[in-house]
Amino acid sequence: TNGCSSRSRPxxxxxxxxxxxRTRTGSAPVAGIWTFDEGWYDQExxxxxxxxxxxxxxxxxxxxxxxxxxxxxxxxxxxxxxxDVEIWLNGQLLERFRAGQEPYDGQWVVSSRTNAxxxxxxxxxxxxxxxxxxxxxxARDLGLQLTSYSWQPVP
Length: 155
Hints:
By secondary structure, the protein is an all-beta fold. It has strands at residues 20-23, 26-29, 35-36, 44-45, 50-54, 57-62, 68-76, 83-89, 92-99, 104-111, 118-124, 128-129, 141-142, 144-153.
C-alpha cells in the first residue's frame, strides 16, 4: 500500500459548498455525501479550511442521485512538485492534466449511475514524503490535496 488508510471512512460533513437536491417529496443534501475510501488520509483542518490528502491513488464513492451530474474539485500538489493527474469516473477517463504550482479547479458534467454508487478514482504520478526530504516530521506519502469538492445534479 501507499501508507494511506484502506478503510472506509464516513462522508465529509463539511463540504466547501452546500448543494441540495430538490425533489417532489422534499430536499436532501448532496455534496456532503462523499465516501472517502482507499488511498485517503484522515480529514485535516486549520480551523477555517478542511482538506484531505491522498497518496498515488485515491478512491471516492459518490451517491446515485441523477443521470447527469456536475462534478467539481480543487486539487493541489505539495509546494514545488508537479504531478501528472488522471480523473476517472466509473471506469471512464474524464481528464488527464499536469498539476503544479497553482490549484487545479476541475469541473465536469458527467453521465452518472442512478442505480449504484459512482466510483471516482484520482491518480497522481508523484508523491512526496516530507520527512524523507528533511522538511518536516510528516512521514506520509503525499500526492494530491483535495480542498473543495461538490457533486450536484444538472437540470
